[in-house]
Amino acid sequence: MKRMKVTGKELALLCGMAALGTLTFPLGAAARTVDSVTATAGSTAEIVYSGETLTVTNGVESIGNNATGIRAVDDTEVAIGKDIYVHGANSQYNNSYGVYGDSGVQVRVGTDIVVESDAGAERVRGIYIDGGYGSISSTPDIQVGGNISASGINTIGIYVSGKNANIKVDGNVTASNRNATGITTGGTSKIYVGGDVISSYDNNGTLSYGISVGAGNDSYVEVAGNIVASGKLTSGVRMGGSGTNKQIKVGKSVVAGGESSKGIDTNGDGVSAYVAGDVTANGKSSLGIIVQNDAQVTVDGNLKASGEGAKGVELRDGSSVTVGKNIEVSGTEAIGINVDRWNVSGSGIEINVGGSFIVSGDDSYGIYTGTTKNTALKMNITDDLVVSSTNSSTQSVGIFSAYMPLEAVIGGKVAVLGTGVYGIYGDAGSDIGVAGNVEVAGAGSLGIQVLGGSKVQAGGIVTGSAAADSIGVDASNSSVTIVGASSIEGAGSTGVLLRKNDAALTMSGLMTVNGANAIGIDIKTSDTNAVLDGPGSVQVSGTDAVGIKLGSGTETTIDSWNLNVADSSAGAGIELGNNSKLELKNVASQAAADGVLLRAAGTATVNVDGSSHLVGDVLHDGTVSGTLALAFAEGSSLTGKVNEQGAGVINLEMDNAVWKLSGDSSLHQLTLNNGAAVHLTHSDGYHTLTAQELQGSGGLFKLDVDVRSLESDKLAITDASSGSHVLDIYQKDAYEPSAGSTEGHGLVLGSVTGTADFTAKDREGSLFYKHYELGSKASETAGYDTDWYLDKIISVDPGDKTTTTVKTIMGAAALNYHTWRTDNDQLLQRLGDLRQSGDGENGVWLRLKGTKISRDGRFSFENKYTTYELGYDKVLRQTDDYTRYGGVAFSYGDGSSSYAGGSGSNHNKAIGLYGTQINKKGHYLDLVLKYSDMDNDFSVLDTEGKKISGDYDNKGLAFSAEYGRKNALQRGWYIEPKAQLTLGYLDGGSYFTSNRVKVEQSHIKSVLGRVGFQLGRDIDAKTNIYIKADLLHEFGGGYDVKMTAANGDGLYQSADFDDTWVEYGIGAAIRTGHNNHLYFDVERTAGSDFKKDWQWNIGARWEF
């Protein structure tokens, strides 16, 4: 069989559509070629029968009513070199076709298909295939080398009434008249358009489609250019009916510009769309893309809804959309992505945005859902969500998800800029995460609102200065987590509003509340049970602003927070509504002078746990009558004033807690138990604490007094009192009355009604504790039963109660003495075993010594120090009977000391001369003369918290003589008894402590005796190991100290250290080379108040 060849343009088609190459038609007896085809009204120009092939060199024209250019029967092929032109007449019975073919006909058009009609014409088609194809072939069934233009009324460029059409158009497809369509297929089809698809007619909203595909599976439409629906009620591409796995791919952009137009209309199931460019809905009520039934929309560019009432994308039935760049919604009442209210089912809706989401139109929505189905809306925005409105009478919403839980992740911030604007609204079960801040800049606006069981996490909350009466986050029966800093500046604005049961806020950053009447955190409704977890901080400074507000009937727990009332003009750190309850756990606060930390109206309960420490005033403003009941647990504290006004009542209960008053205070009932303390001494000046009732027992009141001017803090109990309490009296400016002084007699410290009993606490002075004796008498003030006054001041015997100053002075002196005495040690520790010496006549040695000593008793201390020592000696004489050495040594000691109330440091510098004789028969004599220079400093705190410091130095001289003899036993064992006597003198001195006590210390004479033995074994000529034990006794060691205080009080103290104790240890001496030696030992003591807890000693000696 002969064949003719017609060459087409190559094109790769997605989803299995093969490249177009050489088109082949069978020729022979069934092949015909004509120059052109022209059909007039009522005629058919050419008929091609089954199996035939018709080639038209030029074009095909079909003009008039019921005109058909080519009628192709069954499986025929038609190749048209140029264009098809069809013009239908004005008749409702008009049927005009360029090519009319049966199922299986293949048509090739070299250039354009143009279909026109007169007004009133019907069924005008460029190509009409009746019944479609059996299956989709690898090459197009219909190929158009140019454009398709359906510009007439009721015209269609290509119409395949059945399914499985395979259509390729190299140019544009345009439908530009009423009821016109560029390409229509009845079902499953593959369509490729190399240019744009345009549906542009606009005349009273009659339907017009660029491409329309009916029901069926696996349909595919690809448009290399743009899809533009610019006419009213027009659609660029429509894919309808049932089916699955249907796809639309757009190489550039989609624009729905006409009123109620649709760029891509998938009025059917299972259609997914991909757009390489932007999707824009700028016509009134227009829609860029609509998909449903688990379909997917991917837009690589931007999604824009700028027309009035326009929608960028509409999703139904579990569909999803991914936008590679930004979503911009600027039209009035426009919607960026609309989730259809009645048609959501399946697995939910998913939305991904690669850039920002910007909503700026009045009454517009970025995302809108109104479905009643319980499916999730999942959304991911890479950058910011920005919502704004220029019209104060309208409302715009960034994301509105009603009746549908919202799962949103926003990589940037949520910014709400207009008046009355909402950022995000999420229904029950929503989970919203915002990496940046939620920023509200417009009046009456709301950043995020969620309902029951939802979660919100954001970087911070910011309400700008112009955001009056706005709210950052409104959470009902939901939890909120804030991880960054927040700023609430708008007048009357609220950072976080919590409502209903199980409301929770976790915050780790600082929230500043600067706006007038602003609220940082508002616990709103009476059925709210809220938990606020930290570590969060709230700082309040705006006029009448409130950090945390508890509404009437609410119950709130605040855990691990810090509150700061930075300005006294602020309303309160925490405001308590009527019948509210508050639990504070591990809460700290600060406040400016007169700053109100807790403000109550009506009845409220506050429980403070032992790890909470509150600073700021407590006020019941009396605007609503009721009782504020405060309970402070053991270890907690309150610093500030407590006052009740009008009909307000305050009851304060403290159990081993502390209240530090910053000014005059008044309350109804004060209950103190188990050492609870009230410090009226906390701030300057004198203050009065007034309570109607005093209850409990074991309370302590700290009072400032001036016994010279007879001024003091005062306690006033007006109605009733009970229990035993203590007055802790502080003399102003640390003045100390001298012993026997009558200053302060008769000074009234408290006026009381009831049976309460008061005693005074002893106060620590410099040299003596002062015992304050109280007296009581009938009150001289009307309305009170008893005045408690200061009767006399008595100095306590130091033997019964010793002050920190005295204990430290005596302890420091004892430390210097014992450190000096311990530093005078023995020959073996200093030089090792000289019997192992080599041939050298000169020796250099170095040793390092670490020591911890302490003393128990009245003047206790502890000292840990390290000594570095360097020495040199030489052989002075050597005979057959003995070797005599002479040498000099230098040492430096560095110590760290501890006392009952603090610590210190000490240093010791010394130089020593020694002479040593080693006899051949085993006995030796060692003589040492040593001069020491010691300094000592200390810093301690007394029981009043006052710092006491001092420093001084001593110089000492000691001479020691040590004798011993080594007696050999069997197998290298030996025993070496020894004795030592050390005579010492440590000079005295005088100095002043920081609390103006003059110290004069006498010298100390020491006579220290030692007897003991060393039991060891010479492993060989180079190695010696041993144990040792000594009995020591100090025959001297007594000294006196005179102390004189600034007020003239004087005290003499004596100490005597004539102890007896035992010292024991273990050591070794090793000759490591011909003239090199290494020696070490450890030792400790027992049997005395003095203890050498441990001492280690290591040395090395070189001879030359």
Automatic annotation (TrEMBL):
<keyword id="KW-0732">Signal</keyword>
<dbReference type="GO" id="GO:0019867">
    <property type="term" value="C:outer membrane"/>
</dbReference>
<feature type="signal peptide">
    <location>
        <begin position="1"/>
        <end position="29"/>
    </location>
</feature>
<dbReference type="InterPro" id="IPR005546">
    <property type="entry name" value="Autotransporte_beta"/>
</dbReference>
<dbReference type="InterPro" id="IPR006315">
    <property type="entry name" value="OM_autotransptr_brl_dom"/>
</dbReference>
<dbReference type="Pfam" id="PF03212">
    <property type="entry name" value="Pertactin"/>
</dbReference>
<dbReference type="Pfam" id="PF03797">
    <property type="entry name" value="Autotransporter"/>
</dbReference>
<protein>
    <submittedName>
        <fullName>Autotransporter</fullName>
    </submittedName>
</protein>
<feature type="domain" description="Autotransporter">
    <location>
        <begin position="837"/>
        <end position="1104"/>
    </location>
</feature>
<dbReference type="InterPro" id="IPR012332">
    <property type="entry name" value="Autotransporter_pectin_lyase_C"/>
</dbReference>
<dbReference type="InterPro" id="IPR036709">
    <property type="entry name" value="Autotransporte_beta_dom_sf"/>
</dbReference>
<dbReference type="InterPro" id="IPR004899">
    <property type="entry name" value="Pertactin_central"/>
</dbReference>
<dbReference type="InterPro" id="IPR011050">
    <property type="entry name" value="Pectin_lyase_fold/virulence"/>
</dbReference>
<dbReference type="InterPro" id="IPR051551">
    <property type="entry name" value="Autotransporter_adhesion"/>
</dbReference>
<dbReference type="InterPro" id="IPR003991">
    <property type="entry name" value="Pertactin_virulence_factor"/>
</dbReference>
